[in-house]
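User: Hey, my collaborator sent me this sequence without any context and asked if I could get a structure. I don't really work with proteins. Can you help?
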Amino acid sequence: MKARLEVIRGSGNVFRDLNLPDADILQLKAILATEIIKVLNTQGLSVRAAQRLTGFAAADFSRIRNADLARFTVDRLMTMINKLGSRIEVAVKVKRPASRSRQALPLAEV
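Assistant: No problem. I've predicted the 3D structure and written it out in structure-token form, which is a compact way to encode the shape of the chain:
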């Protein structure tokens, strides 16, 4: 007899689904690291070649390849991508909780 599995739709952010703190930052770092790895692979760059090109330590690129992102900030990862010759476009979309009612903010008197 086969056991039935419950299927749950994820939020689109695995870190949020795992209830990790700073889930949005962790996902953004993972996305940026993925882009760095894509550039390294596309250009056929070793970690040493990436070091020469960007000035960042070869160990940093090794950490990124191993998804060890704890030492990296978002802006550092973005700088690495830029130094590898790619550009980043960031779009911010703010979603407010549905239960929160919208209230007009008072305008400051001039």
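In plain terms: The first helix runs from residue 14 to 17. You can pass these tokens on to your collaborator as they are.
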